[in-house]
Every structure is written in structure tokens, then in C-alpha cells.
Write a structure and sequence with these properties.
Radius of gyration: 25 Å
Helix content: under 10%
Low-confidence stretches: 200-204
Number of strands: 33
Mean pLDDT: 90
Strand order of the largest sheet: 18-20-17-16-22-25
Distance between the termini: 56 Å
Number of helices: 3
Largest sheet: 6 strands, mixed
Length: 433
């Protein structure tokens, strides 16, 4: 048996009657029933956040009252099987408060309160879906539904970048509240009939997607990149999904936005015209001595697209895929952040990895004291250098004298330098203080 996150899809179910019903076979560990709500009044990863009901007087189910409609609970049976609920069918909208207390733990466990599936996102229903109706209640960097997958013991997401998705009866999930707290609404208009619906039911997708995987020999962690027209290099609320950090881990993988906002992401959405230019910082959490192997799964990306993992510590760029091409490294020290690994894509049927290494070898070295930026690397291949504002306005173009760029005329701020070579194009962020 595995842990599940459930919500009660009826009203008036007494907690004591539920746990003492032998047909439900709720696991008992010592005096603890393996049934508990989640309290975000504690810091993330705190065991105290899960307060189990007990068979003794510590936290007895007698007098606990009914399950709260719209609230989520963690549960595990002693044996595999189903659980039975008894009560009234909700026929009106259900609302539940979510909070971000002083502990700064903004995660809230809620769930579908109806005995029917509900539309999760706009690809399932353009208007009456959970994500759209409750968008204002969720932190901009975490506008997503975070689901626990008991089979893989991992957290998955649904947001507006996902295919048409549905939340089954009894499906609970985490959301991250805005700073002021809010009220989440489950409306009757969200309800839909999905025959034989199961938890995390989704349809197929044609969205170009790269799933980067890191394997430490026993566990595989993933982070995703999707390409959608009209999205940006920065935060796209409802499309980018911040990393679910409620469960601490000594091994993890994530990305930073190309235009970084300081948040770690499990999903980053980019425009569909930046395959040759976007450089994606990859964050890795792993212990020294670990052997990490990187590869990717891709779906619907252009056929001639190559996925490159750059290791700036070892000055190596390697093509990776889900076949014979991977990149492995043994960590000489603990890894906990970004700065070493970067993901690139290139669209070319002829550009080889040797050529690509010449492109990625180009580096910028600013000297704030002199207002000069030095360009190092394969300078002989450099044909044009352009500087753009963060809004995309071209400010400066050089067709010669690439080695030293005078930026005295630039105001303090963030810029992007596009380096066009005989072998390809590279874009680098430049910060002038």
C-alpha cells in the first residue's frame, strides 16, 4: 500500500465512523491512524505538519467531527483496496480558505469536493476550470496544481501549459497561496462526467517538450522545458511551475528562468522561437561523490533539434538524448544550486558538437571599473555582436572590434548580448551595475 492524498467527495462524513469502519482498513502505527490533514503553520518538511488522529486520548477521533469539504488529507490503508464514504452529495459551490502564515509555508492541501470529476485547466474547459477560476489565489511563480503520484513517489503538476486535465472525485492536491491568503472556490460549473476517470487523468499533447533527467544510480529526477508561442523568457504565471519544495531532498533537479526571478522551477515555458538562443540554467542538488548521468526525453520538438548539456566547470558541452547519448560526471563536491550546468538547444541538420563547442566557448568578461566588456573564445568565428535591452530593443551592434566593447553609454540594468558566429548564435545576459 502507498500513501494517497484524498478529499471527501460528499458532505457529513464523520471521521470516527470512517476510521473505525473495518472495511476501510486504515493502517494503525502504534496509536496513530495513518490518516491526517496537513497544517502549514509549521515550516516545510516538518513532521509536525501532519498531526495524525490516534486510538488513544492524544488526538482521538471521537469528537473530531466531520471531514471538511474541500480540504485534503493523507491516507494509507493496511492493505490495498478502496475506502467508503457515506453522506450527502454537495449540490452547491464549495469554498475553502488557504493561507500563508508567518512561518512562510504557503503550501495548502485541498481537494475536489464533488463526486464527479472537475475541469482542471483551460485546455479541458476554457472558462469553468479550477486554474482559471482560482488564478488570483495562487503565488505567481506557483500557479499550478501539485499532485502526489503514489506509484512513482513523486510530485507532478497541472497548469495552463498542461494538456486538457481533470481532477477525479476524491483527488486532493497542493496549491501555494498568495501572501495575503485567499479563498479557493470549487464551483458546480467545474463538474464534468469522465467515464472511468482515474487520478491525474490527462489527454495527449503536441506541445514541444524537453524532459531533462538526472540519474544518481538509484533515483531519477526530472525537470521540464516547454515551448509555447507568445510566452516569454521570464515568468509566465500559470504556465511556469515553481519547484514543489514541501518535501526536502538530498537529490533534486530544477531550472532557473532564462530571465531569472530567484525561484527554482520544475517547469519552465519558453517562446517557440528561441531554440537557437535560449540558455537555460540547470540546478542540481546532489552529494559529493555521486555519479550523475543526464539524458532527455523529447516530444514534438523540431526534428533537427539537438539538445546540449554544458558543464562549465569542466568546459564540456555534450549532446544528450534518450538513446545512446548521455553525459555522466562524478561530483567532486556537494552540488546545491546553479552555475555549473546549462541546457542549450540548436536547430541544425549539419551543425556538429565540435562546431557548437566553438560557439559556446565565447564568454563575456565585464570590467566595471573601465566600463569595458571583453569577449574571449573563438573570436575568429564571430561575425556580429548585438546588445538588446530587457524589453528586446536593440541598442548596439558591432561588426568588428569584438575583443573589447565599451558600455559606458549604457544605463545600469540587465541586457542581452547576441553573438552571431559562422557556426551558430549564442545569447548571454549582461548586468551593468
Amino acid at each position: 500500500p502507498n500513501w494517497h492524498l484524498i478529499a471527501v467527495p460528499i458532505g457529513g462524513q464523520d471521521i470516527n465512523n470512517f476510521v473505525t469502519n473495518s472495511a476501510n482498513d486504515i493502517l494503525i502505527n502504534g496509536v496513530d491512524y495513518m490518516l491526517t490533514p496537513y497544517s502549514n503553520s509549521f515550516i516545510t518538511s516538518s513532521p509536525s505538519a501532519w498531526t495524525h488522529w490516534t486510538t488513544d486520548a492524544t488526538n482521538p477521533t471521537t469528537g473530531a467531527g466531520n471531514f471538511i469539504s474541500g480540504k485534503g488529507y493523507k491516507i494509507i490503508r493496511a492493505t490495498d483496496g478502496t475506502v467508503d464514504f457515506s453522506g450527502s452529495v454537495p449540490v452547491t459551490d464549495v469554498s475553502i480558505a488557504i493561507t500563508k502564515p508567518a512561518s512562510n509555508n504557503a503550501w495548502n492541501l485541498i481537494g475536489n469536493p464533488f463526486p464527479s470529476s472537475i475541469y482542471a485547466n483551460s485546455n479541458a474547459d476554457a472558462t469553468n476550470n479550477f486554474m482559471t477560476i482560482n488564478s488570483s489565489t495562487m503565488d505567481d511563480s506557483y500557479k499550478a496544481i501539485y499532485l502526489w503520484n503514489p506509484t512513482s513517489s513523486s510530485t507532478e503538476y497541472i497548469n495552463q501549459a498542461s494538456v486538457g486535465s481533470y481532477l477525479s472525485p476524491g483527488q486532493a492536491f497542493f496549491v501555494r497561496s498568495v501572501a495575503t491568503g485567499a479563498t479557493v472556490n470549487f464551483t458546480t460549473a467545474m463538474r464534468t462526467h469522465q467515464e472511468s476517470a482515474v487520478f491525474q487523468k490527462m489527454a495527449t499533447t503536441l506541445t514541444p517538450t524537453i524532459t531533462l533527467k538526472a540519474n544518481n544510480g538509484s533515483v531519477i529526477k526530472t525537470t521540464q522545458i516547454k515551448y509555447i508561442a507568445g510566452k516569454s523568457l521570464g515568468l509566465d504565471p500559470g504556465y511556469d511551475a515553481g519547484l514543489f519544495d514541501l518535501i526536502s531532498s538530498s537529490f533534486n533537479l530544477y531550472s532557473k528562468l532564462v530571465q531569472d526571478n530567484g525561484v527554482n522551477f520544475m517547469l519552465q515555458v519558453l517562446p517557440d522561437n528561441v531554440y537557437d538562443t535560449a540558455v537555460i540554467p540547470i540546478g542540481l542538488v546532489a552529494d559529493a561523490g555521486s555519479q550523475i548521468s543526464f539524458n532527455v526525453d523529447t516530444a514534438n520538438i523540431p526534428l533537427v533539434t539537438k539538445v546540449i548539456l554544458e558543464d562549465r566547470l569542466l568546459n564540456v558541452s555534450s549532446e544528450i538524448d534518450n538513446g545512446n547519448k548521455s553525459y555522466s560526471v562524478i561530483l567532486s563536491e556537494n552540488s546545491n544550486g546553479v552555475g555549473r550546468f546549462y541546457l542549450h538547444t540548436i536547430v541544425s541538420s549539419s551543425l556538429g558538437i565540435d562546431d557548437y563547442n566553438q560557439v559556446t566557448s565565447l564568454k563575456l568578461y565585464p570590467n566595471p571599473a573601465t566600463n569595458v566588456v571583453y569577449v574571449k573564445g573563438a573570436i575568429n568565428n564571430l561575425q556580429k555582436l548585438s546588445i538588446y535591452s530587457i524589453l528586446g530593443k536593440r541598442i548596439m551592434t558591432l561588426n568588428r572590434n569584438f575583443k573589447a566593447i565599451n558600455i559606458a553609454s549604457l544605463k545600469a540594468g540587465i541586457y542581452f548580448v547576441k553573438l552571431k558566429t559562422k557556426k551558430g548564435t549564442k545569447t548571454v545576459k549582461l548586468v551593468k551595475e
